[in-house]
Amino acid sequence: MTDNKKKIVIAGATSAIAEHCARLWVSEAAVDLTLIGRNSDRTERVAADLRVRSPQSVFRILEADFIDPLAIRQLVDGIVAEGSVDIVLIAHGSLPDQAVCQQDLTACHEALTVNGISPVLFAEAFAGHMQKANRGTLAMIGSVAGDRGRKSNYVYGAAKGLVTRYAQGLQHRLANTGVKVVLIKPGPTDTPMTAHLKQQGARLASVENVAQLIVKGITQGKPVVYVPAKWALIMMVIRHLPRFVFNKLEI
Q1: Is residue 212 part of a domain?
Q2: Is the peptide bond before 186 cis (omega within 30 degrees of 0)?
Q3: What kind and span of H or E run contains 225?
Q4: How far is CA 75 from the centre of its chain?
Q5: Residue 37 included in any domain
Q6: Which residue blocks in the chain are alpha helix, DSSP H?
Q7: Exposure letters 73-88 (e unless 16+ CB within 10 A, then b)
């Protein structure tokens, strides 16, 4: 019987941040956890680690097409058919090379789709079910990069800006329901996705600390969670810089 276990779904379960969030959840209590990934072998490796940490938990592995809207709809409908969900974390994405995106429209299209459109499709597929059940928390990982377009990563920032605007609209739609929508905005975090930034000397937040803050924010149902919290102030300054000042910055 799994009825008394909190039901959690993670889309993009092989991301480092998602994996560490899952470790925290299973350390708190036995859960019913569905892990969605693009590669079943990699997702199974994440699940194997979690099983050792929490033998009492229930784990499901699903391989998905993260681009096809019909496949996403079918996948989500199948998950929800087994019972309403307590927490959905949409965590997938990639960090594209801005210079490549400027030259290669296929790479640009892929970056916008994976980081913007796909997370929105997953959220929209879950949102209707959660609204009908009038319960649950839907969390989406955006990025501080979505707060203001910068020449160093504006394609990625545009995709995450889409996630931000979508989450705001979804929060408005569900404001008078029992569903909470949490938009998570991490700063640069020490994960395999940012390994090249680390090699360049960038200061990155630890993935363990970022995951702790995300899980805490989801538990509290905060509308927006900057992780670490200092990025709320940093991005407020960046958003309000006059254009003539901003355009002189190498960021």
Answers
A1: yes
A2: no
A3: strand 224-227
A4: 18
A5: yes
A6: 16-28, 40-53, 69-81, 98-103, 105-112, 118-133, 154-173, 195-199, 207-220, 230-240, 243-246
A7: eebbeebbeeeebbbb
Closest among 127, 51, 122, 117 to 85, alpha carbons compared:
127
Convert the pLDDT of each residue in 201-214 to its tens digit.
778 899 999 999 99
Maximum CA pair distance of the chain? 62
Total number of domains in the chain: 1
Phi, psi of 152 (to 5 degrees): -75, -20
Q: Where in the sequence is the domain holding 52, given as residue range(s)?
A: 6-246
Residue type, 120: V
Tokens of 59: 């784990």
pLDDT at 1 over 50: no
Tell whether 251 is covered by a domain.
no
Helix (H, G, I), strand (E, B), or coil: what is residue 208? helix
Q: Could you tell me if 26 and 35 are in contact, meaning their C-beta atoms sit under 8 angstroms apart?
A: no
**Which domain CATH number covers 207?**
3.40.50.720
Overall pTM surpassing 0.90 (yes/no):
yes
DSSP string, 130-174: HHHHT--EEEEE--GGGSS--TTTHHHHHHHHHHHHHHHHHHHHT
* Domain-embedded: residue 1: no
- pLDDT value of residue 74: 98
Kindly indicate the confidence band of residue 2, based on its pLDDT and cuts at 50, 70 and 90. Answer: very low
